[in-house]
Amino acid sequence: MRAIFRSGLVATIFAVLVIASAGAVFVEKRLDDPAQETRAREISEGIRCLVCQNQSILDSNADLARDLRQIIRERIVAGDSDAEVKTFLVVRYGDWVLLDPPFKLRTAILWLGPLAFFLLGGTAVIMFLRGRGSAGDVETLPLTAEEEASFKQISPDDKDELPK
Amino acid sequence: MRFRFLAPVLTFSAIAVIMWYALFNLDPSEIPSELVSKPVPEFSLSGVPGYGPDLSSTDLKTGKITLLNVFASWCVACLAEHPLFMELKKQGNVEIYGLNYKDKPDAAASWLKRNGNPYVRTGMDEKGRVGIDFGVYGVPETFVIGPEGKILDKIIGPVTQDIYEQRIAPLLQGNNS
Predict the structure, then answer these.
(1) Which residues of B touch A130 (CB under 8 A)?
(2) What is the tens place of the pLDDT at every residue in B31-73?
């Protein structure tokens, strides 16, 4: 009974902590217009946090991420389009801030790299399998005349009698 | 055909070399700056109380190469580079301007009182908005600014003697000679 009570208490404390930390991401003021707030969130989701690098600023608790979320809201209220808001950030931090970077000469490796590796790996696999196939063929090659002769010598037509 | 067994060995070696290079020679926390070779963003800030006049973008068009150092009293790495800036001020090689990033005026003033003031002018960027215009994403960062107010280079993290000699001094000499 006491054990149940204790685990219940632990679960409650844990739940409170989880809820509190989840709420901590959005302590800032939201926009009054729900449509604009949704747009702000959608843009934030695609902006990379400069401090934590592999998080979007929507997921990040960093101070700078909060500032950037606030700036995105301000730009939206000022009447910027989604593209204009992103340009505002790209001018300051470069394509680097976009989690989905545009295809350019500088980002070509990023986009084409995996495809190149896939093709390279695929070619290697095909070559390997072909090599193995031909190795199998070698084993079933017909005997040469010489081999056949020596085989006949040690194994004459009469199977029951071994040569002496 | 005889050396085909070397293919996996060579592939592994190539990958190992690339990864070794990336691990020791590339810094993932160093984000390339978009603002290098562009003019400084427009701004106007009031100074740290008691420490020099206000700072605005026009103050950085001095006709010679200057440094703009982003610092804060809460920034530990700023203490590491501070003695070098004090030394540079003493030598008089280069003027340093201070952008005080997200700090309280009192805290900034007492920090400068305790550690010394290497700056010609300071600006208090209390909300961090000017910092964002400069593409600042951490403190300290130091901008090398050209005679016409154009950003020549940006140093992320504390400026060390090595960085000064390799990246800042050549720019200073190139301009003054």
Answers:
(1) none
(2) 777 788 889 999 999 999 988 789 999 999 989 999 999 999 9
